[in-house]
Amino acid sequence: MKIIIIEDEPLAAKRLQKLFLELEKDAEVLAMFDSVKRSVDWLSKNTAPDLLLMDIQLSDGLCFDIFSGVNIETPVIFTTAYDEFALRAFKVNSVDYLLKPIDKEELQKAINKFKTQSGINSAGISSEQMNNVIEILTKQHHQYKTRFLVKFGDRLEPISINDIQYFFAEEKLTFLVMLQGKKLVIDPSLDELETQLDPMQFFRLNRQYLASIHSIGNIFTHLNGKLKVQVKGLEKEEIFVSRERAPEFKKWLDR
User: Fold this and answer.
1) Residue range of the domain that includes 240
2) Which strands sit side by side in the sheet containing 173-178, from one edge to the other?
3) CATH number, domain containing residue 164
4) How many other C-beta atoms are found inside a 10 Å radius of the C-beta of residue 189?
5) Taking the alpha carbons of 143, 79, 9, 3 in that order, is the dihedral positive or negative?
6) Does the predicted model carry a pTM greater than 0.70?
7) Looking at the structure, do residues 115 and 8 belong to the same domain, yes or no?
8) Is 67 in the same domain as 153?
9) CATH of the domain at 133
10) How do residues 207-222 score in pLDDT, each as one tens digit?
11) What is the pLDDT of residues 83-101, one digit of tens each?
12) Using CA atoms, how far apart are residues 211 and 205, in angstroms rounded to an integer?
């Protein structure tokens, strides 16, 4: 099996390559690219690989631009972070994806699915599927929530996004925490909130916390490339951003 990895974070690309080769001893990684331009250039001049593993955010744009630059009939497995709006779009259009950080077991399932389907239908992603994905992403990009309607006893009150410090999940419940520290239970899960909130203002630190940019305090380097983050109001909690997500987190803060 010959594959191409398209990923703009070197550590994530190397880890994905390592995991793939551990699972598929006979696989060959033909190349790894970090940009739309380099990917289009290679794919337009060389024989197509058997499989493409493609990150959403690349160094010079979104990976969807690759489909505009070259005709792709190769099956694609997308990789995406927690805060990508693509999750819903992929699910709706039956497009395969892996959630970062890549889990070895999930990667194995994706490979098995590819092997099962490749003999039956190796046509990859249709233009209709890709157009639907892009349309959903575009719509969601411009429809971020500005407030939440929260219940206080027997009354309802709108809470502005600007008054929210962070969200967290605990025992299957989702909590909204206001600037003054008040905690309120809300209906959406953290996964759902990621599709509703402006990614310029909120970041999914890990599976438990989704924080406002204004809530981020000190940041410390930690073992194995992780980052330890202090969130205002949670100074005593040890909150970590994974090694795979650390570069994206730093980019988010540096905009």
Assistant:
1) 147-253
2) 183-186, 173-178, 164-170, 209-212, 202-204
3) 2.40.50.40
4) 13
5) negative
6) no
7) yes
8) no
9) 3.40.50.2300
10) 999 999 999 999 999 8
11) 445 555 565 444 677 877 8
12) 7
